[in-house]
Amino acid sequence: MNGLEDLTPQQVAEGLKAGTMILIDVREPREYAVERIHGTLNHPLSTLEPAVMPVDGSRRVVLSCAGGRRSAVAAIHCQDAGVNVDAHLAGGLGAWKAAGLPFTAIDPDTGEIISDGK
Predict the structure, then answer these.
(1) Is the pTM of this model over 0.70?
(2) What domains are there in the chain, each with its CATH number?
(3) Tens digits of residue pLDDT in 90-110
(4) Main-chain dihedrals φ then ψ at residue 4, nearest 5 degrees
(5) Beta strand 87-89 with 5-7: parallel, antiparallel or unpaired?
(6) Contact 46, 31 (CB under 8 A)
(7) How far apart, in Å, are the Cα atoms of 18 and each of 11, 12, 81, 99?
(8) What share of the chain is helix, strand, coil (3-state, %, to 5)?
(9) What is the DSSP letter of 58?
(10) pLDDT digit string (tens) for 40-88?
(11) Rg (alpha carbons) of the chain, rounded to whole number
């Protein structure tokens, strides 16, 4: 398998906008429910099944987490299972937010949208 490619928030944002990437958030469901990047899917690392990753060749699968560690671990699990996932969002959601890119944040007590990042 290939090594893991660190993608910048800008690279991922461009790939999502162009429809050439799909972003998979590997954080746990509660983390994902409270704050996430627009358009991500949730496949938590704790229950990750590489075989169900949407690797069909139409879009590049890119993994994401809070800071980059769990997405790197998830990519290794995928590669070990023979699933071609070779990229992640370096720095995770933290880097995405620091770059000023849009995200959704929800108040976990009320369900109210408290930030869309813009």
Answers:
(1) yes
(2) 5-115 (3.40.250.10)
(3) 999 999 999 999 999 988 788
(4) -90, 125
(5) parallel
(6) no
(7) 11, 10, 28, 19
(8) 35, 25, 40
(9) S
(10) 999 999 999 999 999 888 899 999 999 999 999 999 999 999 998 999 9
(11) 14
